[in-house]
Amino acid sequence: MTEAKAKFDEMFDADGSVRPAYAGYCEWFDQQDQSWLKRKHGEAESSFRKTGITFNVYGEDEAEERLIPFDMVPRTISANEWRRLTRGIEQRVSALNAFIYDLYHRQEILRAGRIPTRLFRDNAAWLQQMVGFTPPGKVYTHIVGIDLVRTGPDEWYVLEDNARTPSGVSYMLENRETMMAMFPELFSQVQVEPVSTYPRQLAKSLAACAPPACNGKPNVAVLTPGIYNSAYFEHAFLADQMGAELVEGSDLRVIDGRVQMRTTHGFEPVDVIYRRVDDEFLDPLSFNKDSMLGVPGIMDVYRSGGITIANAPGTGVCDDKAVYSFMPEIVEFYTGEKPLLPNVQTWRCSDKDSLGYVLDNLEELVVKEVHGSGGYGMLIGPTASKKEIAAFRKKLQATPDNYIAQPTLALSTTPIFTKKGLVPRHVDLRPYVLVSPKGVDITPGGLTRVALKEGSLVVNSSQGGGTKDTWVLKD
């Protein structure tokens, strides 16, 4: 292997020696024939294409569906490191759930002056329809994805919270299955925590949140917008893996105060819906009246205790990047503890002094839309042209409340496999968290996204990024 040069490379230390977490993998790798590994890399892509693991790109005239590139060099995390991360993740997710409950009830955090009311006054993600209502089990965030970045041996930061409809878990599962199929002997040499239990844990977690109207074993369904949605493969995959029904809005209707699903035997009640439809389109009687994706009247059934919707409507407040900037205060307010996982330093452009600093330092900062996602609508100052910076400056000055800014972090790197050998690329990590009245369950690993372009910090698949298998080593 060749040394990977970077400020912090997760596989190699500064003098080029292999870090302990990668010792088993590197020993195996160095014993393999390089031409054989190249063939295996090509086989992985063919396998993904045959399986149909694609995503849609909206607004582009080229291919409607694309393959997310897969890199076969795993990202490895030691057991001790993972234990430390899980404590911080559990603390943060517990605080998020308590925060959402508070926002739709007494709003104690606002009364205490810990966060400003303007965050919700004009926030479209905050839903009046949820005020005073408590979901079954008091769980709002049933499935959460916490995006983490690493900058040093013991330096992890939360980059984003995904509490609405976090995606990508199917790629975590397929990445592992592909690696095990290609290199079965590797997994006997390196002991790795399994991720294959996630669908079963998801089904159990959702069933544990069944509504009061449920009699007997809960009937769970996955609600998809349909085959043209960018994550449709994942919706179908998870429904199949859980043994749940995959339904569209047209398959459901409200009958006798219950949401019921059309079957070959007539209509049957549904107890829990894992919805992959945004709030706006969930119920045309409560939200967007033109929506054809949701179920008319489902919100009335929900509020009357006839069904559980996961994640709860209104959880998108936590995906707001302005709210993210207050997460240290939110964690401390609801847990009484300092955050175990810190935020990335964030300047709120709605603040006059912060805006002045951001405008003076655009060339050095990353600027993001408060409601943005997928790597869109952002400026990466160090790689932007003068023309791009000038255009973004005008946007900031016109609508400063729409943006936050962060320093350009020196993200950690892990090697990817190329024809020229191993080369370092920047990565992030999205662990997946399940929440139920029985507690918090964190799958050991998650989805590692990798920026395949040299020097790029953008890991999103929509922006050319790929994925890796994520290994958490057993003790």
UniProtKB/TrEMBL annotation:
InterPro entries registered for this protein in UniProt: ATP-dep_Glu-Cys_Ligase-2, CP_ATPgrasp_2, UCP005522
Domain Circularly permuted ATP-grasp type: 74-451
Pfam families: CP_ATPgrasp_2 (PF14403)
PANTHER family: BLR5612 PROTEIN, SLL1039 PROTEIN
UniProt name for this protein: Circularly permuted type 2 ATP-grasp protein
